[in-house]
Design brief:
Helix content: over 70%
Oligomer: single chain
Order of helices and strands: HHHH
Structural class: mainly alpha
Shape: elongated
Distance between the termini: 28 Å
CATH architecture: Up-down Bundle
Radius of gyration: 18 Å
CATH topology: Four Helix Bundle (Hemerythrin (Met), subunit A)
Strand content: under 5%
Length: 120
């Protein structure tokens, strides 16, 4: 797997999925689906950049001679790609939060806090 999730992250993801399946209205589910569907191409492209940069760095590390400058460029490219991915995730979360009621946002925040994350 490209980006490994911790057990806590997996548990939070499962709880969020269950929460959204049980507490959203049909209209909200459709909106969430639409948001993720719209974001999918951007996530796909960003993940391609992450994979490409990570592969370049791994190849440089495995080379017979190590080029510090090229390795730094590859590491910077990977960091930039991961940063872009984090931004896409934040934008997606924000868009989903916009369609939630205040009570639903509060419950989402409680789940996030229980797992040591701030949702707001």
């Amino acid at each position: 797997m490209l980006i490994d999730l911790t057990d806590d992250q997996k548990k939070l993801r499962a709880e969020l999925r269950a929460y959204f399946q049980s507490c959203l209205t049909d209209a909200q589910r459709d909106q969430v689906f639409s948001i993720f569907h719209e974001q999918a191409p951007a996530f796909h492209e960003q993940m391609k950049q992450v994979r490409s940069a990570r592969l370049a760095l791994m190849q440089l590390a495995a080379a017979d001679s190590f080029d510090d400058a090229r390795a730094r460029q590859a590491a910077d490219a990977e960091a930039k790609a991961l940063s872009g991915l984090a931004l896409l995730r934040a934008q997606t979360v924000h868009r989903v939060r916009e369609i939630l009621t205040p009570e639903q946002r509060s419950r989402l925040d409680q789940l996030a806090q229980r797992h040591g994350r701030g949702s707001r």
